[in-house]
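Hi support team,

I submitted a single chain yesterday and got back a structure, but I'm not sure I'm reading the C-alpha cell output correctly. Could someone confirm the output below corresponds to the sequence I sent? I've pasted both exactly as they appear in my results page.

Thanks,
R.
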Amino acid sequence: MELHERLRIFFERIANASACQNAQDALELISRLTESVEEELSGMPKIDLPPIEPTGRMYPPQPDYIFPQPDGSILARTRKHRIVCGTDGSITITHVKTKKVEIAKPGGAS
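Hi R., thanks for writing in. Yes, this is the structure output for that exact sequence:
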C-alpha cells in the first residue's frame, strides 16, 4: 500500500481512538498506531534505528525529536510533521511544509 494511503489510515485510526487523558498517553497512541499501520500495511521491515535516508516506511517520533514542555505538553517532529500532544491528551498533527493541520483530536481530560 502506498505511503499516502497508510498515512490516511493512520489519521483515521487516531480520529477513531478513545480520547487520551494526558500528553504522554497521546504520544504513546501515536507511536502504537504508527507501528501497527506499518506492520499491517507497508510490507517493509522495521529497522531498529530508522535510517537517515527515507525507506518509505513511517516511524513514530524518535527520542531525539521529542521535546517535553514545561507545561506538561509534548512537542515532537517527524520527517514531514509537527506533533503537539496537549496536557489534556489532545493531538494536533501539522504538515511542516504546507502548515496544514492534518488532524486535531480533542483530549479526554477536563
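A quick pointer for reading it: The chain has a mean pLDDT of 94. Let us know if anything else looks off.

Best,
Support desk
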